[in-house]
């Protein structure tokens, strides 16, 4: 049986700043996971990834990351994505400091 | 301190001009990321988890105050006010913006520094004993030869597209502080019948397939050294596996072909290479040596030191742990710990870097070193200046007396920064340091080296830590494997795994269990952790870490 498709977001790093960005449903980029487009269909995921990658002046290394959908919007399922949307644990730098 | 020749200066300026144009072309869309990526990596610019990271080479870990001040300035002006010293004696900036990198490289160029060959399949920054030119046990200063190798390997046409990266380390002391046996080529200066020569070790390396290097030649003369190294790299350049990146390092080539066969091939290649050298390298070496003349050492009384040592217990404790014997009477090698309890191993603020630069200028004949253990060294301090030095270090949080102790931990950046990481390293190091500081056991435990890597690439040298910790991702949870009995010294050895790994919440407890077991079973307070482990083996530690009840539970799970 094919495995159920887990919801995903398209994410990568911004070309100029290098920080973590997420793709939105209006083909723009956000620095906040909450505002990312959540993709629930496998075929759509590939199309959205291609659309994101075509914005080469905005993003580096776009890929699909697993999320779970909660009342507060998408949440990471893996600790790596959790660190990416937060920042390092040794200093109050990165996303956590910008919020 | 080696001063760059005009050739070096022009070469760096030209490379920086090229890179500035490449960045502009990436931003205006004329270069794709696939085209740009190898170009930025050639200039030491990585993309990490939260930002770009710029890795700057500090050749053989040697700096003067002007360079250190410039590193501080860069941290302040373009980064978040700090830099991270690495196990390869480099410095990394964790937050540069792409637009700013060409300016940063120009600023480095002003003091003869760069980020070239800190990435890619090239010969990387040559590392050396951080006590070079100062240690009492030294046969000869390894830095002139390190500089010769740097010049030979920088932009060497044959060695820009090799099967994989290539790392060389050199020590001038029998006491191996440069981890030479864990490098692609390790060089140890030796003396035979009054002649200085070089023992050459090949095929060491950590990472996925850790190996201790093997001696390929016991004695290579000075005029044969560079052609001999070229012969080794050249043999590997042909034999090395380009088909599989995990099998491409020379350690695998040596393992697959055997050291005797490699030696035969290298000797044959050497016979071809040697006549092409024509002694130019020896003239160059003689020229380089002039830049490494020892400083004008002072002959002065040490009363100030003796008094402070007698009367000030805080100074005494620092002197006992952080000083090493110097080859000149009345001098000491002072290590500045970049491992304050609870702080990030190897991170120095811009202010701290500036203070260290000032102190080197004032008390240290303008020399600084970065150790692979992520500390800073003032290699030449007259003992009478040590109390004043210590007082100034205290003011900026740099007087931690813990060199060689349990809180002097090597930790790679791990998943707090590194895109390749499988788990975090830094918080584990911070917690261990804080735990043992609170227990007030640090000095009783004595000599012990903990080394932590956030993935199998082993930048944190965990295989050769007395206690090694490797962070892994086990089904989406951070998990830490522990090894015991590793050794980075001249008796290099890879550690043995204790057994199943530990989750992040209990790994610090596990380390405490190991250390308490050592305290309980050591034959005397003089027996170090490593000596105890060698005597008892894994058994007592295993028994303490995995009590029978737990094991039964684990089996049932
Ligand atoms: S050991 Fe792994 S996690 Fe640590 S710095 Fe090296 S590549 Fe990154």
Automatic annotation (TrEMBL), chain A:
<feature type="region of interest" description="Disordered">
    <location>
        <begin position="73"/>
        <end position="99"/>
    </location>
</feature>
<dbReference type="Pfam" id="PF11011">
    <property type="entry name" value="DUF2849"/>
</dbReference>
<feature type="compositionally biased region" description="Basic and acidic residues">
    <location>
        <begin position="73"/>
        <end position="85"/>
    </location>
</feature>
<protein>
    <recommendedName>
        <fullName>Sulfite reductase (NADPH) hemoprotein beta-component</fullName>
    </recommendedName>
</protein>
<dbReference type="InterPro" id="IPR021270">
    <property type="entry name" value="DUF2849"/>
</dbReference>
UniProtKB/TrEMBL annotation, chain B:
<dbReference type="GO" id="GO:0051539">
    <property type="term" value="F:4 iron, 4 sulfur cluster binding"/>
</dbReference>
<feature type="domain" description="Nitrite/sulphite reductase 4Fe-4S">
    <location>
        <begin position="409"/>
        <end position="545"/>
    </location>
</feature>
<dbReference type="InterPro" id="IPR045854">
    <property type="entry name" value="NO2/SO3_Rdtase_4Fe4S_sf"/>
</dbReference>
<protein>
    <submittedName>
        <fullName>Sulfite reductase (NADPH) hemoprotein beta-component</fullName>
    </submittedName>
</protein>
<keyword id="KW-0560">Oxidoreductase</keyword>
<dbReference type="Pfam" id="PF03460">
    <property type="entry name" value="NIR_SIR_ferr"/>
</dbReference>
<dbReference type="InterPro" id="IPR006067">
    <property type="entry name" value="NO2/SO3_Rdtase_4Fe4S_dom"/>
</dbReference>
<keyword id="KW-0479">Metal-binding</keyword>
<dbReference type="InterPro" id="IPR005117">
    <property type="entry name" value="NiRdtase/SiRdtase_haem-b_fer"/>
</dbReference>
<dbReference type="GO" id="GO:0046872">
    <property type="term" value="F:metal ion binding"/>
</dbReference>
<feature type="domain" description="Nitrite/Sulfite reductase ferredoxin-like">
    <location>
        <begin position="52"/>
        <end position="110"/>
    </location>
</feature>
<dbReference type="GO" id="GO:0020037">
    <property type="term" value="F:heme binding"/>
</dbReference>
<keyword id="KW-0349">Heme</keyword>
<dbReference type="InterPro" id="IPR051329">
    <property type="entry name" value="NIR_SIR_4Fe-4S"/>
</dbReference>
<feature type="domain" description="Nitrite/Sulfite reductase ferredoxin-like">
    <location>
        <begin position="346"/>
        <end position="395"/>
    </location>
</feature>
<keyword id="KW-0408">Iron</keyword>
<dbReference type="InterPro" id="IPR036136">
    <property type="entry name" value="Nit/Sulf_reduc_fer-like_dom_sf"/>
</dbReference>
<keyword id="KW-0004">4Fe-4S</keyword>
<dbReference type="Pfam" id="PF01077">
    <property type="entry name" value="NIR_SIR"/>
</dbReference>
<feature type="domain" description="Nitrite/sulphite reductase 4Fe-4S">
    <location>
        <begin position="119"/>
        <end position="272"/>
    </location>
</feature>
<keyword id="KW-0411">Iron-sulfur</keyword>
<dbReference type="GO" id="GO:0016491">
    <property type="term" value="F:oxidoreductase activity"/>
</dbReference>
């Amino acid at each position: 049986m094919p495995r159920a498709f887990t919801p995903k977001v398209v994410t990568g790093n911004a070309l100029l700043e290098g920080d973590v960005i997420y793709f939105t449903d209006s083909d723009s980029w956000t620095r906040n996971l909450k505002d990312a487009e959540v993709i629930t269909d496998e075929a759509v995921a590939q199309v959205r990834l291609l659309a994101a990658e075509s914005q080469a002046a905005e993003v580096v290394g776009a890929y699909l990351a697993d999320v779970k959908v909660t009342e507060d919007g998408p949440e990471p399922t893996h600790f790596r994505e959790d660190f990416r949307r937060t920042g390092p644990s040794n200093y109050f730098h990165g996303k956590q400091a910008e919020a | 301190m080696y001063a760059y020749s005009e050739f070096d200066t022009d070469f760096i300026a030209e490379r920086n001009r090229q890179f500035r144009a490449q960045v502009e072309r990436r931003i205006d869309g004329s270069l794709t990321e696939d085209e740009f990526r190898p170009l930025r990596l050639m200039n030491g610019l990585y993309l990490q988890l939260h930002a770009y990271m710029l890795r700057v080479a500090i050749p053989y870990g040697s700096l003067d105050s002007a360079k250190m001040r410039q590193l501080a300035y860069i941290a302040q002006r373009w980064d978040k006010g700090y830099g991270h010293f690495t196990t390869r004696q480099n410095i990394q900036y964790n937050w540069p913006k792409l637009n700013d990198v060409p300016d940063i490289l120009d600023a480095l160029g002003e003091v003869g520094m760069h980020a070239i060959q800190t990435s890619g399949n090239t010969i990387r920054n040559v590392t050396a004993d951080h006590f070079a030119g100062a240690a009492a046990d030294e046969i000869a200063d390894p830095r002139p030869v390190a500089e010769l190798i740097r010049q030979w390997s920088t932009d060497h046409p044959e060695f820009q597209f090799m099967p994989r990266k290539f790392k060389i380390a050199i020590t001038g002391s029998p006491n191996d502080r440069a981890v030479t046996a864990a490098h692609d080529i390790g060089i140890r200066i030796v003396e035979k019948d009054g002649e200085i020569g070089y023992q050459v070790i090949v095929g060491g390396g950590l990472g996925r397939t850790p190996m201790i290097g093997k001696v390929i030649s016991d004695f290579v003369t000075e005029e044969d050294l560079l052609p001999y190294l070229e012969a080794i790299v050249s043999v590997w350049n042909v034999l090395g596996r380009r088909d599989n990146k995990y099998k491409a390092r020379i350690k695998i080539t040596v393992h697959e072909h055997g050291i005797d066969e490699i030696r035969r091939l290298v000797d044959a290649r050497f016979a071809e290479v040697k006549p092409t050298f024509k002694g130019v390298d020896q003239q160059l070496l003689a020229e380089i040596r002039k830049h490494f003349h020892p400083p004008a050492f002072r002959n002065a009384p040490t009363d100030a030191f003796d008094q402070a040592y007698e009367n000030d217990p805080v100074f005494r404790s620092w002197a006992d742990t952080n000083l090493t014997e110097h080859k000149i009477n009345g001098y000491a090698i002072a290590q500045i710990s970049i491992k304050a309890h609870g702080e990030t191993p190897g991170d120095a603020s811009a202010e701290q870097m500036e203070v260290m630069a000032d102190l080197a200028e004032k008390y240290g004949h303008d020399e600084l070193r970065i150790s692979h253990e992520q500390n800073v060294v003032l290699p030449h301090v007259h003992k009478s200046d040590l109390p004043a030095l210590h007082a100034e270090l205290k003011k900026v949080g740099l007087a931690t007396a813990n060199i060689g102790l349990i809180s002097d931990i090597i930790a790679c950046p791990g998943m707090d920064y590194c895109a390749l990481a499988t788990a975090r390293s830094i918080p584990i190091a911070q917690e261990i340091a804080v735990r043992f500081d609170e227990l007030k056991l640090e000095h009783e435990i004595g000599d012990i080296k903990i080394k932590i890597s956030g993935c199998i690439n082993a930048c944190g040298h965990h295989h050769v830590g007395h206690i090694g910790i490797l962070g892994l991702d086990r089904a989406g949870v951070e998990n830490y494997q522990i090894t015991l009995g590793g050794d980075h010294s001249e008796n290099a050895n890879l550690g043995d795994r204790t057994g199943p790994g530990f989750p992040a919440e209990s790994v610090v407890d596990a380390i405490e269990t190991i250390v308490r077991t050592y305290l309980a079973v050591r034959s005397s307070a003089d027996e170090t952790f490593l000596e105890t482990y060698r005597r008892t083996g894994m058994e007592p530690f295993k028994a303490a870490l995995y009590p029978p009840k737990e094991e039964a539970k684990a089996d049932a799970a």
